[in-house]
TrEMBL record:
Residues 21-30 have a biased composition (Polar residues). It comes from Suillus fuscotomentosus. The lineage of its organism: Eukaryota, Fungi, Dikarya, Basidiomycota, Agaricomycotina. Residues 1-33 are annotated as: Disordered. Residues 7-16 have a biased composition (Basic residues). InterPro entries: CxC2_KDZ-assoc, KDZ. Residues 191-238 form the CxC2-like cysteine cluster KDZ transposase-associated domain. This is CxC2-like cysteine cluster KDZ transposase-associated domain-containing protein.
Length: 468
């Protein structure tokens, strides 16, 4: 009988063995070994081995199988198995082989919360202790003055200081949140109220001989610790009467959070405001609209820096359309990751340098120098498709009073990266004239690419007059 070939069976693995009888060395009895593996919830692995009589099954149900067993006692094919032997147990006692019987010793790491529960009372006690001033006979940790009623929430130390010492220690940390002990509990207080001034363009040890205070002594700084009112002096080198600033730290944090967590500027700003006052008893000055303008300036400055515009002798004003874009590194870019021309490439291999683009629309991006293309004056043709109203219903959309309803985009279909000049305004739906202008503006940088592949949900209509 030929050996059976094929894929592993999903049934329990049955392997036949020859069981020698007493007084003989030849195989006279055929059995099947059934091995069953189980994994307990504790991770223990059990192996149970059972030997089943195969001779009885062949003699009663399948006479032809007996001849096979007698003539071939060792089946080399591990996937070979017999059928019709269910429920035929021999008089032999099944052999049980247990693997990993010893249970794993449980440790505190298996349930750390149970380890913490007996000490739960200690933690609120420590929290309450941090909200107090400690012993009444405290002296200043810097000058030994007895009037020690100030501490800092943002410093690593919890020591108490006098007014002069805490102002001196925070000359380079003017945005920390301070507390003052009064009426048996700590009250929030600003460094501005304690007399600390921030002098721009000078170090803390170098005084300015011609300081210019902020307009109306009203200046607010937005930081990750909160929104702070500060006393700030200029040195005749600033914009016209600024009243609000934001630290690089808070701008970088929102920049990352807007990508990773998709948090909005509104929620981020009010989260910071709550760090300054979470009760509403002392309302914080609303600087949300200013924060949006600062973020727009921050994005533009970072884009200019990333594109190398800071080293251009012509300056930032010489930036051309599409120069701030982050190019897809995998798309073919003549002169960057491949030669200017493909004349030396064998024709049958030019498909390797094909460009794959996807076209669609969204309604969230705004007009900037990186991706958007200026609109032209073109006319729009009507679609003949009866099942797609993207263009035909454009004039019926509720667009009254809006300069643009959204934007059309051309992206790398494989890596979802926007193309330079591959984004443009849409006034009333996805008009062909808008999409054509956006597509050909994006393709202006790929004139030497041999093949371009488009993916578009209305390509059946869009392609008809594409080259007219």
């Amino acid at each position: 009988m030929a050996e059976t070939r094929g894929h592993p069976s999903k049934k329990p693995h049955l392997v036949r063995h020859s069981l020698p009888t007493a007084g003989t060395s030849t195989s006279s009895h055929n059995i099947q070994r059934h091995r069953n593996f189980t994994v307990k919830p504790t991770g223990q692995i059990n192996l149970r081995t059972t030997y089943l009589d195969a001779t009885a099954a062949t003699s009663t149900e399948n006479p032809e199988l007996e001849l096979v067993i007698n003539t071939q006692t060792n089946l080399k094919d591990p996937w070979n198995e017999s059928h019709g032997d269910t429920g035929l147990l021999s008089d032999m006692v099944p052999h049980n082989v247990m693997v990993g019987n010893a249970q794993r010793r449980r440790t505190a790491g298996d349930n750390p919360i149970h380890l913490w529960l007996p000490e739960r009372q200690t933690y609120p006690d420590k929290f309450i202790r941090l909200e107090g001033c400690g012993e009444a006979n405290h002296s200043c940790h810097d000058c030994e003055d007895s009037n020690t009623i100030f501490c800092c929430d943002d410093c690593f130390s919890v020591n108490l200081y006098c007014q002069s010492c805490i102002c001196r220690l925070h000359q380079n940390m003017p945005l920390h949140r301070l507390k003052m002990w009064h009426d048996e509990y700590f009250h929030p207080i600003m460094l501005k109220q304690l007399g600390l001034h921030i002098q721009l363009s000078h170090s803390t040890v170098q005084p300015c001989y011609n300081p210019k205070p902020a307009y109306d002594d009203d200046f607010t700084i937005i930081d990750v610790h909160g929104i702070h009112e500060v006393a700030l002096d200029f040195c005749n080198s600033t914009s016209t009467n600024p009243r609000t600033a934001a630290t690089f730290t808070v701008l970088e944090r929102f920049h990352l959070l807007s990508f990773e967590s998709k948090v909005s500027a509104f929620k981020f700003y009010h989260c910071i405001a709550r760090r300054s006052d979470n009760t509403g008893v002392n309302p914080i000055k609303d600087r949300y609209s200013v924060f949006l303008r600062i973020m727009a300036e921050w994005h533009n400055i970072k884009a200019l820096k990333c594109a190398g515009r800071g080293h251009d002798p012509a300056g930032v004003d010489a930036t051309q359309e599409g120069e701030l874009v982050v190019l897809c590194p995998a798309c073919p870019h003549p002169g960057k990751n491949l030669a200017e021309t493909l004349n030396d490439v064998v024709p049958r291999n030019r498909w390797i340098y094909s460009l794959f683009l996807a076209i669609d629309a969204n309604f969230h991006l705004k007009h900037r120098l990186a991706y958007l293309q200026e609109n032209g004056t073109l006319t729009q043709e009507k679609s003949t498709c009866i099942s797609h109203n993207t263009v035909n219903m454009a004039d019926t959309k509720a667009s009254k009073g809006l300069a643009a309803m959204g934007v059309g985009t051309v992206v790398c279909a494989r890596h979802d990266m926007r193309l330079a000049n591959g984004v443009g305004d849409l006034q009333k739906g996805e008009k062909y004239l808008n999409m054509d202008y956006i597509v050909f503006s994006a393709l202006s940088r790929f004139s030497s690419i041999p093949a371009i592949n488009f993916s578009y949900d209305i390509a059946c209509q869009w392609h008809k007059k594409l080259w007219h």
